[in-house]
Design a protein that fits this description.
Oligomer: single chain
Radius of gyration: 26 Å
Shape: globular
Number of strands: 2
Structural class: mainly alpha
Strand order of the largest sheet: 1-2
Length: 371
């Protein structure tokens, strides 16, 4: 067959999707090792297979975005493309959470019909989900251990090496951090964002503190509580006002993102109404939502396990529900972007941008006269 004919050769739907392989991949253990088929085992297998298919798509999207941001200079046109792909990941995550509702149509009694056939298989052995965690940027030192062993100990040597290689490579976290550090608007001409922001914070705090103390409607206890809620330059804002304080937080493990990247993320959030910053703000928002959605998925998974098993040990030997709850609490990756909200100030208190910088942050054109 000629090359041109091969290019347009027809293919059957069944073959294109590999349906023979996919639809014959549901092998019920209850059918193979016992005299009684557990009806709900089919549901259990299908749901987990669908999870793995969606994991594959998430990996496909994350790898493409990391590749775009791993370059020294990120093409601005690729920010919109990355936002689109991140929004796709979020849509998939919503499906992952909704699938738990389908799983919960299986009762604990139904699950017990085949649970004893699953040992030692476990969701902890999902290689693709571990890849997703590494691609997002979950560091090994922040992981909860799996029965006291490294998380990759359950995989073959080949897969273990791949995961270790991913840990050492560029993740979405490190790629976004580097991109933020290159933000060009932190200091332009006479305008220094950080110095102006510091002045705005002090002015805002002094004004609100005076208003709280002079209020005739508040008791002494209420005044004290309001002042604590307001914070000061020695509390919420200390790390952003002092580079060394931020480094101390990094050394303690309280934050991961560099000082310069944090300041850039703050600028993008504060001045997100400027046209050039619309997409960068949307990008950061999508990353936070992906982090939140995986936390939600872990919590829903933990709830489902408790409903199905109570306090029983998981099939992989973990503490089951308790382990899953702890991963939901500790395996968040982009906490530093969440914490930017702590540093936000009202629009009315934002330092005014110089006209030349405001022009750079806008879409504009000039019309040349023919005369």
């Amino acid at each position: 067959m000629k090359e041109e004919e091969k290019k347009y050769a027809t293919i059957h739907y069944q073959n294109y999707l590999g349906l023979d392989k996919i639809l014959n991949a549901q092998n019920l253990r209850s059918e193979n090792v016992s005299d009684k088929i557990a009806h709900d085992e089919m549901l259990f297998i299908v749901i987990h297979q669908v999870y793995e298919l969606w994991f594959k798509q998430i990996i496909h999207e994350l790898e493409s975005i990391i590749e775009l941001f791993a370059k020294d200079k990120v093409d601005e046109r690729n920010i919109g493309l990355s936002v689109h792909r991140l929004e796709r990941v979020i849509s998939i995550q919503k499906l992952l959470v909704e699938q738990i509702d389908v799983m919960e149509t299986m009762t604990p009694l139904d699950f017990l019909e085949f649970r004893n056939h699953l040992f030692p298989a476990s969701g902890f052995q999902s290689f693709q989900f571990r890849k997703i965690e590494n691609l997002l940027g979950l560091p090994d030192e922040r992981r909860l251990t799996y029965n006291g062993c490294p998380y990759h100990s359950v995989f073959t040597e080949e897969k273990k090496e791949e995961l270790i290689e991913l840990e050492a490579g560029t993740s979405l976290f490190t790629a976004i951090e580097s991109w933020l550090e290159r933000t060009p608007f932190l200091k332009v001409g006479e305008f220094n964002f950080l110095e102006n922001y510091k002045k705005a914070i002090r002015k805002m705090i002094d004004r609100e503190e005076a208003a709280i103390k002079s209020s005739p409607y508040l008791t002494e206890e209420e005044v004290e509580m309001r002042l604590k809620m307001l914070g000061s330059t020695d509390t919420y804002f200390d790390a952003v006002l002092d580079t060394s304080k931020h480094q101390e937080k990094i050394d303690r493990g309280d934050v991961r993102m560099s000082y310069k990247a944090t300041i850039a993320a703050l600028l993008i959030n504060l001045y997100r109404d400027e046209p050039i910053l619309h997409l960068p703000f949307k990008l950061l928002t999508c990353i936070i939502e992906i982090d939140d959605m995986f936390t939600l998925w872990r919590y829903r998974h933990a709830q489902m396990v408790q409903r199905m098993l109570g306090n029983k040990i998981g099939t992989g030997g973990s503490s089951g529900h308790e382990y899953l709850v702890q991963t939901a609490k500790k395996h968040s990756i982009f906490n530093d972007l969440h914490k930017i909200a702590t540093l936000m100030i009202p629009r009315s208190d934002l330092p005014q941008l110089p006209s030349d910088l405001k022009k750079q942050l806008s879409f504009y054109f000039t019309v040349q006269s023919n005369h």
